[in-house]
Design goal:
- This protein is of the alpha+beta class and 341 residues long.
- Among the domains are: 131 residues, Immunoglobulin-like (Sandwich); 68 residues, no CATH class.
- It starts with 14 loop residues before the first helix and ends with a helix.
- This is Alpha-macroglobulin receptor-binding domain-containing protein.
């Protein structure tokens, strides 16, 4: 029989091929006499359990031995984060810790994760995939305590820092109750600061059914005062712009093509009037951007976001009709003639 490479778990692609290999190995072992000098010591070491030892010699080499152990699954499935929650209720909260951070830590945060199964029974073998913000690492002592405590809140954890520059924390839960949420609390240490923290996520899913999952995003709260200016050496520049009125068609076309020295700005609708203010990550909660609405988003150094009303809104009032016509004229001019300035 031609040599065929085995799969990761020992199979050979199909049941028929595997049975042929087993039959060939059995026939080989029957015809081959056992070695006279057979002596093999096997030590099995598991965390939290007594060491298991086996000794094999010619007299007992064919005697079967077995021991029950907990299997840890570290091969993770790819999960589509755009799918809605299914079979899990997930809540994530992060706030600055009241404890004084270590000397090598900028800030210490405490993250609380609550996960509960939504079905009629408990769910076994659940994976928590926690993406970490840039510059953050989990407190290893907290995770060790959750893993080694009497209640055994988590079965295993693994810090994966080679997936991206942000890193991930993988937590394995043997069971998630459907009656009350499983609560995990541990610290995240901010080792160094970055300009703007991007949102991170926590995903809970079944290992054997990765489509049964739920994802929740979180972002450590930043100091607004630290975002009002950017300093380099002895020179500081304000990151917040001044309030301005709604852009007209000609002004908007010029602003699309001529760079400005002021900071980025956006236009948002407030009480039927359009106001201009700064756009940065720290004030994203104040923008009131609505899902399903359309926005012009100009990528560049002098970026602004301008709300594009829906067709129904455009026909609701003469003021919005003029606004929509101005936006359409600007978009058509830029798409046809590009920037001519």
């Amino acid at each position: 029989m031609a040599e065929q490479p085995a799969e990761e778990r020992g199979g050979f692609g199909s049941t028929q091929s595997t049975m042929v290999v087993l039959q060939a190995l059995s026939e080989y072992l029957i015809r081959k006499p056992p070695p006279a000098d057979l002596s093999l010591d096997v030590d099995v070491r598991l965390r939290g359990r007594k060491e298991i030892r086996y000794h094999f010699n010619p007299e007992n080499s064919y005697a079967a031995r077995s021991s029950r152990v907990v299997t840890y699954y570290n091969q993770l499935h790819e999960v589509d984060e755009k799918m809605p929650c299914k079979d899990f209720e997930l809540k994530v909260n992060i706030e600055e810790s009241s404890e004084k951070p270590p000397a090598d830590v900028e800030k210490s945060y405490q993250i609380t994760i609550k996960v509960r199964a939504l079905g009629p029974r408990d769910v076994r073998m659940v994976v928590l995939d926690i993406s970490l913000p840039t510059g953050f690492t989990p407190e290893n002592s907290d995770l060790e305590m959750l893993s080694n405590s009497v209640d055994h809140y988590i079965n295993d954890f693994k810090i994966v820092d080679n997936l991206s520059d942000r890193g991930s924390l993988i937590i394995h839960l043997f069971k998630v109750s459907h009656k009350e949420p499983e609560i995990l609390i541990f610290r995240l240490q901010q080792r160094f600061k970055v300009g703007l923290l991007q949102p991170s996520s926590v995903t809970a899913y079944e290992y054997y059914n990765p489509d049964h999952r739920c994802t929740h995003t979180y972002t450590p709260r930043e100091d607004r005062e630290e975002l009002t200016q950017i300093c380099k050496d002895n020179v500081c520049r304000c990151t917040q712009g001044k309030v301005c009125t709604s852009l007209q068609h000609g002004v908007r076309s010029c602003d699309c093509c001529v760079p400005k020295s002021e900071s980025e700005s956006f236009l948002n609708k407030e009480r039927e009037t359009f106001a201009c203010t700064t756009l940065h990550h720290g004030c994203r909660d104040d923008l009131n951007l609505q899902q399903g609405s359309q926005f012009i988003y100009m990528l560049g150094k002098d970026t602004w976001v301008e709300r594009w009303p829906t067709p129904a809104e455009c026909s609701s009032s003469p003021e919005l009709q003029a606004k929509c016509k101005s936006l359409n004229d600007t978009a058509e001019e830029l798409s046809v003639n590009a920037c001519r300035l």
